[in-house]
Design goal:
5% strand; mainly alpha; globular; two-stranded antiparallel ribbon
Length: 511
């Protein structure tokens, strides 16, 4: 035979670099392996999503005339790892070389690099060109900068792509319309109906397999309805652009009890699998602005999430790993409380986000950052445990996108590489952006005591506890000026209050 071409579960793209020059006699290898389902104990729906999408993509390749060697999870000879399946295929098929696209995660890239040294055939590892900014391009951008800030990277990407540009100036005269995207959801606002995708026969087979093999993993299977084909992903994008995007800008930061999706795009699962391309998505959104069907604040905010934030965190990841995985700038040393898994808490906001994660393997960015991430940081949870939780519970989670968000944005464990300050907030923020507090057992107006909102009890103690690291951060000047006006006894009492709250919530010191 000719070349063996490896396609991974998050590389389900027609234009994948490993397939760009495929020819007769080449064989495409795709493998469902236990190692990728269990290196963290992924949500059942995440495993179903990847396996069902892989099977659909393999069929798409066969229909296009390609030869596919597909190893199912329950195949008797399945070695259980990508490296093992590559080795087995090279031997069985007598391939003359291996061609692959570089992995999204450092862990697997290292594994396949080590494998290459042991194979008897040459290995070509090609760049993953499905991103707007290559890792090398990001490295060049970052090379002469004292600080890495998404806003300046985003502006450069706008200039390079021409997205939302008016000549050499940003459309509308401003680069960023985030200030217009922070409205609280009115109580009488009609919520949009969202297009979902009930599982077909093939996906139901995968659901049964996953339910059997991974019964003890987090999450429910019954409600699975994520897109698993390119056609479904395209339909989800069409629905968002045509019906949802106009309201996205106003309410993208809003939260509502029992409402998982609101005006969010829900395309991140398809985008991170490779079923959609980032530049195509951004161009579709821009066209909605150009034809007058969506306002500028909505379109700019959405494009910033992809062209700005997604591309930025991927660049940071590949710039900083593997060292980045060890960062713990605030010396956080607590265990993640059990309610992050069970949802058994009187905090209405946290209970709702955990319920959404269990049911849908999803929560939107403000719920991730300002509810679960903010709380974990205030509690002082070790970043390893925060990383693990986010990787487990969300269907769109891959280490390259999740770790810079959790270790950088959510917990400040990276010491300011990703975010310019810790996104610490008291209960007032959640009260302003949601209806959670009205039905909560805790009182968001109370600052101390067992009945007070835990975010309030934790906030000032967090700042005082981390004074040495955070005091000189210019974006925290105001709260530290407030702290500095208080006597030492009061500041000590704030730390004691926070420690009592941490203990009551089960954030104990790790063994």
């Amino acid at each position: 035979m000719g070349a063996l071409r490896l396609v991974l579960g998050d590389q389900l793209s027609d234009g994948l670099s490993a397939l760009s020059d495929i020819r007769e006699g080449d064989v495409i290898l795709m493998a469902e392996v236990a190692e990728e389902a269990t290196y963290v104990r992924h949500h059942k729906q995440k495993i179903v999503l990847v396996l069902a999408a892989m099977r659909a993509f393999a069929e798409r390749l066969r229909t296009s005339g390609h030869t596919v060697r597909y190893v199912a999870l329950d195949d008797a000879d399945n070695s259980g790892s990508i490296a093992g399946e590559v080795r087995r295929a090279v031997k069985d098929l007598r391939a003359d070389r291996l061609i692959r696209t570089r992995c999204g995660e450092w862990r697997l890239e290292e594994s396949l690099n080590a494998l290459a040294d042991t194979l008897d055939v040459p290995v070509e590892a090609r760049e993953d060109d499905r991103f707007i900014c290559s890792a090398d391009r990001f490295r060049a951008w970052a090379s002469d900068r004292r600080q890495l800030r998404m806003e300046y990277f985003y502006r450069e990407m706008r200039r390079e792509t021409g997205l939302l540009m008016d000549g050499d100036q940003p459309e509308g005269g401003e680069w960023n319309y985030d200030a217009e995207n922070r409205k609280k959801l009115p109580a009488d606002q009609t919520l949009p109906r969202r297009k979902r995708f009930p599982p077909d026969a093939s996906t139901k087979e995968v659901m049964a397999l996953v339910g059997d093999r991974f019964a003890d993993h987090f999450g429910d299977l019954d409600g699975f309805d994520w897109p698993v084909t390119r056609e479904q992903a395209g339909a989800a994008l069409d629905h968002f652009i045509d019906d949802i995007l106009p309201g996205f800008g106003d309410w993208q930061d809003a939260m509502a009890n029992g409402e998982a999706f609101l005006w969010h795009s829900l395309v991140s699962t398809s985008l991170n699998l490779g079923l959609l391309g980032p530049l195509d998505i951004c161009q579709r959104a821009e066209q909605a602005f150009r034809n007058g069907s969506a306002p500028l604040n909505a379109v700019e905010g959405f494009i910033r999430q992809i062209l700005g934030w997604r591309e930025f965190v991927r660049g940071v990841y590949w710039l900083k790993v593997p060292e980045y995985r060890k960062r713990n700038a605030l010396d956080a040393d607590r265990s993640l409380p059990w309610f992050y898994w069970s949802g058994e808490t009187d905090m209405a906001c946290v209970a709702d986000v955990v319920a959404q994660a269990r049911t849908h393997a999803y929560a939107h960015h403000i719920q991730r950052l300002m509810v679960t991430g903010n709380l974990a940081m205030l509690l002082g949870v070790h970043p390893d445990e925060v990383d693990d939780w986010y990787m487990v519970v969300f269907a769109d989670a891959y280490e390259w996108v999740e770790m810079p968000n959790t270790r950088g944005m959510a917990t400040y464990a990276d010491g300011g590489i990703v975010g310019s300050k810790p996104y610490a907030a008291s209960g007032a923020y959640i009260d302003r952006m949601s209806d959670y507090c009205a039905g909560c057992a805790y009182d968001v107006k109370e600052k101390t005591g067992d009945k007070a909102c835990p975010f309030n009890r934790l906030y000032w103690g967090f700042l005082e506890r981390n004074r040495k690291v955070l005091r000189d951060n210019p974006r925290l000047a105001m709260p530290y000026r407030t702290l500095d006006k208080w006597p030492e006894e009061r500041r000590a009492a704030l730390v004691e209050e926070a420690d009592a709250c941490r203990k009551s919530l089960g954030a104990t010191v790790r063994a």
